[in-house]
Specification:
The complex is a heterodimer of chains A (327) and B (330). Chain A has 327 residues and is of the alpha/beta class. Chain A contains eleven helices and twelve strands. In chain A, a hairpin with a 2-residue loop joins strand 1 and strand 2. Chain B is of the alpha/beta class. Chain B has two domains: 233 residues, 3-Layer(aba) Sandwich (Rossmann fold), CATH 3.40.50; 73 residues, no CATH class. Chain B starts with a strand and ends in a 16-residue tail after the last strand. The chains are: A alpha/beta (327), B alpha/beta (330).
């Protein structure tokens, strides 16, 4: 374990404040991300947790201003290294993407170009952002592959993605993301497509790189096991909003929001043969736009305290925020 | 008691075209697997991608012809029956697939999907069918009105409920479930696992439950078989397997499960390297290049599946050393 590096006189590396990303679909307005705020300091890992459709991927894409049509960021501020990314001209943000902020995705097969050799794909990043010539870039690519644990890196440069296993492809993705020594890495379900033993290797690699380079990580995952082992702080999202935000040990030892409690309770644990606890119903995209508490319909202890109003995110302990009328 | 399903020395190899000019290579997907499933029992099958677990499922269902071996269902070998002869057995063995989006016909209503197997096996008259469909939907926790709707109107969890209802439509004795919950969200996964257990109690079903998630498998299974590169390396009663694994691969798989407990953070990855290519498996014990117990004998001699007592079998030369250092999870 490492302590997050706190630079004096400097705010957190990334500050997201009141982010709202809405989708204007033909069927109506979908508030995919609604008033989301969080921060990440250098060397720190923040996990965004939630089920499909809760808005965690749209949050991360909003940071890079990559959300697809008909989505739009309608409000909020995203400060990265004291610059507001949302006000940056398009050519400047292009210099941030893949350079100071990089991203790795869930499915390495679809995020690598199948007809380009992997050395070429990594070198492209270096030529673009670092102005290297071809030879330098390929040399650097071999070094990067070596750093992410690919054996005989020099000879693998000429491989195509299909010649690699899933774990190796994800290592190539990581090498590409690290090519410009980013200050922030966004890892969107980086191990979901991988087997458990390979998953353990990849998470270990990411932790080591974060430690060595004081890189901040935004880890997006639905797997609470992965989150528990790798995050410093956790934000739990439901229906576009953060419902609980706490330091990782606090969240797992003292979950307060009924959704967080439900998620932790429904993990099958080794040695427990009883019926699993469940959260009745399913996440419903339509509740995204509801006025009251979005979790009301699935809540085991529904309350009427708030009526049709949405509870606010309130600090119940230092650093522990919960969005629930009962908190 | 005679087992419901008995698999004996089942094997299947696929021919993979070699690089230009080379001869085709043989990929031994399933290599001499023997297993038993008793009536009302759940056998869990775990292993990493490419280990042959889905091929094994297809062999049991007769969807892929076996190279050798026997699949005995109540004593009848299903492997070499003609299509006409195998039909009554098809009714007894049903399947649930991983992806509820691609395993339901998008152009059939849910009612048609559920009625079709009854029609094919002439189980009931056309008049009775709507009632039976309604009963099935209720059993899996869906509203009767669902019968008139199409699959795309349902969420992943609901579609998996429809798949389960379809499997139940012909009143089978054995259900082969291939990764039935791995495409689902956590809160929905728990609902489906509970549903599978519920209907098992009601119908005295047997399951062959295939998954890569050891915690899920351990939760639903009576016995668990662990597969590596086409072979079974360990079988044991579920609680014994996780308390005292006797094969190094099982031990490593258990240690690799991310625990939802931040106090266990920073554990080293239990296995180095990746699964070797099944086209060119290592000599001797196929696990030896990644094994921390490996010695010379492991490179030369393939270990046989040994009985350790209490239904616990393992294929390892060093099984007595395995499982001593496993951190006990809560």
């Amino acid at each position: 374990m490492y302590a997050p590096l706190k630079k004096p006189n400097m705010g957190p590396l990334l500050q997201v404040r009141g982010l709202k990303s809405y989708f204007f679909t033909r069927a109506g307005l979908v508030k995919a991300v609604d008033d989301v705020s969080f921060e990440i300091s250098a060397g720190e890992t923040l996990a965004l947790v939630g089920e499909s459709g809760c808005g965690k991927s749209i949050t991360s894409l909003s940071i890079l201003r990559l959300i697809p049509e008909p989505g739009r960021i309608v409000d909020g501020e995203i400060f990265f290294d004291n610059q507001n990314l949302l006000r940056m001209p398009a050519n400047e943000i292009r210099r941030v993407r893949g350079n100071k902020i990089s991203m790795i995705f869930q499915e390495p097969m679809t995020s690598l170009n199948p007809v380009l050799r992997i050395g070429e794909q990594i070198a492209e990043v270096l030529r673009l952002h670092r102005g290297m010539n071809n030879e330098q870039a390929l040399g650097q690519a071999a070094e990067l592959l070596d750093r992410v644990g690919i054996a005989a890196a020099g000879s693998r440069l000429r491989d195509f993605p299909h010649q690699l296993s899933g774990g190796q492809r994800q290592r190539v993705m990581i090498a590409m993301a690290l090519a410009c020594d980013p200050q922030l890495l966004i890892a969107d379900e980086p191990t979901t497509a991988l087997d458990v033993t390979i998953q353990a290797q990849i998470m270990e690699l990411l932790a080591k790189l974060a430690r060595d380079r004081q890189m901040a990580t935004l880890l997006i995952s639905h797997d609470l096991g992965v989150v528990a082992g790798n995050a410093d702080r956790v934000a739990v999202m439901y229906a576009g909003r953060i419902v609980e935000y706490a330091e990782v040990k606090q969240l797992f030892s003292n979950p307060v929001h009924p959704y967080t409690r439900g998620l932790i309770a429904c993990i099958p644990r080794l040695g427990d043969k009883g019926l699993l606890k469940t959260i009745p119903g399913q996440p419903d995209a339509k509740t995204n736009s509801a006025d009251g508490c979005a979790f009301l319909g699935r809540c085991p202890t529904p309350c009427r305290a708030g009526g049709p109003k949405m509870p606010q995110l309130q600090e119940i302990n230092p650093g522990h925020y919960v969005r629930c009328w009962r908190a | 008691m005679k087992p419901l399903l008995e698999i004996r020395d089942l094997a299947k190899a696929f021919s993979v075209p070699g690089k230009s000019g080379d001869k085709a290579n043989l990929l031994q997907a399933v290599d001499g697997v023997s297993l038993e499933i008793a009536a009302g029992e759940t056998l869990g099958l775990v292993g990493e991608s490419g280990c042959g677990k889905s091929t094994l499922a297809r062999l049991v269902l007769g969807l892929t012809p076996a190279d050798r071996g026997e699949v005995l269902y109540r004593g009848t070998d299903l492997c070499f029956l003609s299509p006409r002869q195998i039909r009554p057995y098809r009714r007894q063995i049903q399947m649930i697939f991983q992806d509820p989006f691609s395993s339901l016909n998008p152009r059939m209503t849910v009612g048609e999907t559920l009625a079709e197997p009854m029609l094919i096996h002439s189980l009931c008259s056309a008049k009775e069918r709507p009632q039976k469909v309604e009963k099935l939907l209720n059993q899996v926790g869906l509203d009767a009105a669902a019968a008139a709707r199409y699959p795309h109107e349902f969420s992943g969890g609901q579609r998996q409920r429809i798949s389960i209802a379809r499997a139940l439509a012909v009143e089978p004795e054995l259900i082969v479930a291939d990764e039935p919950v791995s495409a689902l969200d956590l809160s929905v996964q728990a609902q489906i696992l509970n549903l599978l257990r519920e209907i098992q109690g009601q119908h005295n079903l047997s399951y062959l439950f295939i998954a890569h998630d050891l915690a899920v498998v351990e939760h639903v299974s009576d016995r668990v078989a662990v597969m590596y590169l086409g072979k079974i390396v360990e079988t044991a009663p579920a609680d014994e397997l996780y308390r005292q694994p006797r094969h190094p691969y099982t031990e490593a798989l258990l240690a690799a499960i991310p625990q939802p407990d931040p106090n266990l953070a920073g554990r080293p990855a239990p296995l180095k390297g990746e699964v070797p290519s099944p086209l060119n498996p290592p000599s001797g014990c196929s696990f030896h290049p990644r094994c921390r117990y490996a010695s010379q004998i492991c490179q030369q001699q393939e270990p046989a599946l040994n009985q350790l007592g209490n239904n616990h079998q393992t294929a390892c030369h060093h099984s007595d050393k395995v499982g001593q250092s496993l951190p006990q999870s809560t």
